C-alpha cells in the first residue's frame, strides 16, 4: 500500500507540506515511523560544530537543511513530475527500468537470502524490512513486496506516489495488506531496516557522503545496501547519454548528468569509509533492440553493487588507538 501520511518523516526527501512516502507491507502490526531527516541533521550539526568546510563546499543530499526538509534539485523534481503518470507504461520512457527488474529483483532477493537463512517458500523475503529510496511509481517496490518483504518506498515527487497508489489498487495481493503505522509521531530510524535499495538513484544525488552516512544509520548491523547506477567512463557518456537520451530516446533527454556518475572503485571506497563492506559488483548491459538486460563482466556502463553494514563500528578502534596510553 502506498501512503502520503508520513511525508514529514520521509528521509528528508520531501517538504512537510507535500508528502511522498509509499509503503508495501506484509505485517499489519506495529508502527513504522521514520526519521532519516533527523539522522542527516545530526551529521550536519556535527560537521558544523567541527568547522568542517564540507558544509560550504557541498550541497547536502536532497537539499536537507537543519531547519526543514526540502526536495531534491527542483529541476530534477520538475522533470520527473512531468513523467509521473508514465511510470507503468512498459513501452514508454521507463521501459528500460521495467526490463531491469529481471536483473535487480533476483539480485536483491538472492543476496538477501545468502545473508538471511530460513526463508519461506513463495514469500522468501518475509520478515525483512526494506527501504526503497527513490521508488518513483513503485516499479521495484511492488515486486519486492510480492516476495514477502515489509517494504517502504519513498520519492520526492508526490504525483509519482499517486501513480503508485493507483497502480497498487489493482493488485489484490498487496491491496489486502495494511500500513504498518498511522500516527504522526516521529520515531528513531536508526537500525530499523534489513536492507536499503537505491536503484538508479545515486547518479542524481548532490552529496554521496551524507547519503552513505544515512544509509548506514538506518540499517541494522549486517544489513544490506543495494545500488544500481552508472559508471563514469567515456563509454557511459557515449551510450547512456548520447545514444540513450539524444539518439535512441530510450530515456528522456536530460535525465542524466555525466558529472554525477561514479565508478565502482570510487563508490566502494566511499562506502567502506562509512562502515560498509562491499560484497559484490556486477556489470549490467542493456540491449535496445531486444529491450532486455543481461549480466556482463564489464562495469564500463551500468553496474549493480551489494554492500553489507559492518556489525562493529570501526570508529571506536580508531579512537582507542589514537588515545594516549594510561
Q: If you compute it from the alpha carbons, what radius of gyration comes out, rounded to the nearest whole angstrom?
A: 19 Å
Q: Structural class, from secondary structure content?
A: alpha/beta
Strand content: 15-25%
**Form type:** globular
Work out the helix count.
11
Distance between the termini: 57 Å
Q: Poorly predicted ranges (pLDDT <50, ≥5 residues)?
A: 1-22, 24-33, 53-71, 178-188, 315-323
Rounded average pLDDT:
76
Spatially, the strands of the biggest sheet line up as: 1-3-2-4-5-8-6-7
H-E order: EHHHHEHEHHEHEHHEEEH
Largest sheet: 8 strands, mixed
Number of E-state strands: 8
What does this entry look like structurally?
The protein is an alpha/beta fold. The chain is built from 11 helices and 8 strands. An 8-stranded mixed β-sheet has the order 1-3-2-4-5-8-6-7. Helix 1 (36-49) packs across helix 8.
Amino acid at each position: 500500500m502506498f501512503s502520503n501520511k508520513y511525508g514529514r518523516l520521509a528521509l528528508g526527501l520531501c517538504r512537510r507540506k507535500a508528502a511522498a512516502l509509499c509503503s508495501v507491507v506484509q505485517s499489519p502490526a506495529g508502527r513504522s515511523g521514520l526519521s532519516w531527516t533527523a539522522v542527516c541533521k545530526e551529521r550536519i550539526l556535527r560537521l558544523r560544530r567541527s568547522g568542517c568546510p564540507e558544509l560550504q563546499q557541498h550541497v547536502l543530499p536532497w537539499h536537507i537543511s537543519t531547519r526543514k526538509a526540502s526536495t531534491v534539485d527542483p529541476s530534477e523534481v520538475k522533470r520527473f513530475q512531468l513523467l509521473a503518470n508514465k511510470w507503468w507504461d512498459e513501452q514508454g520512457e521507463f521501459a528500460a527500468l521495467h526490463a531491469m527488474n529481471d536483473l535487480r529483483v533476483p539480485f536483491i532477493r538472492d543476496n538477501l537470502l545468502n545473508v538471511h537463512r530460513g526463508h519461506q517458500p513463495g514469500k522468501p523475503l518475509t520478515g525483512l524490512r526494506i527501504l526503497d529510496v527513490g521508488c518513483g511509481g513503485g516499479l521495484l517496490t511492488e515486486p519486492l513486496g510480492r516476495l514477502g518483504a515489509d517494504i517502504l518506498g519513498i520519492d520526492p515527487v508526490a504525483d509519482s506516489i499517486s501513480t503508485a497508489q493507483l497502480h497498487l489498487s489493482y493488485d489484490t495481493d498487496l491491496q489486502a495488506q495494511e500500513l504498518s503505522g498511522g500516527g504522526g509521531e516521529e520515531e528513531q530510524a536508526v537500525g530499523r531496516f534489513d536492507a536499503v535499495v537505491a536503484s538508479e538513484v545515486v547518479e542524481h544525488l548532490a552529496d554521496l557522503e551524507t547519503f552513505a552516512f544515512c544509509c548506514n544509520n538506518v540499517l541494522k548491523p549486517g544489513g544490506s545496501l543495494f545500488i544500481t547506477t552508472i559508471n563514469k567512463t567515456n563509454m557511459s557518456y557515449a551510450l547512456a547519454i548520447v545514444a540513450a537520451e539524444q539518439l535512441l530516446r530510450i530515456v528522456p533527454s536530460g535525465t542524466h548528468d555525466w558529472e554525477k556518475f561514479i565508478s565502482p572503485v570510487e563508490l566502494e571506497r566511499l562506502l567502506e569509509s562509512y562502515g560498509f563492506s562491499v560484497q559484490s559488483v556486477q556489470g549490467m548491459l542493456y540491449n535496445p533492440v531486444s529491450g532486455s538486460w543481461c549480466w556482463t563482466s564489464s562495469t564500463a556502463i551500468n553496474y549493480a553493487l551489494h554492500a553489507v553494514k559492518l556489525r562493529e563500528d570501526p570508529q571506536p578502534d580508531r579512537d582507542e588507538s589514537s588515545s594516549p596510553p594510561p
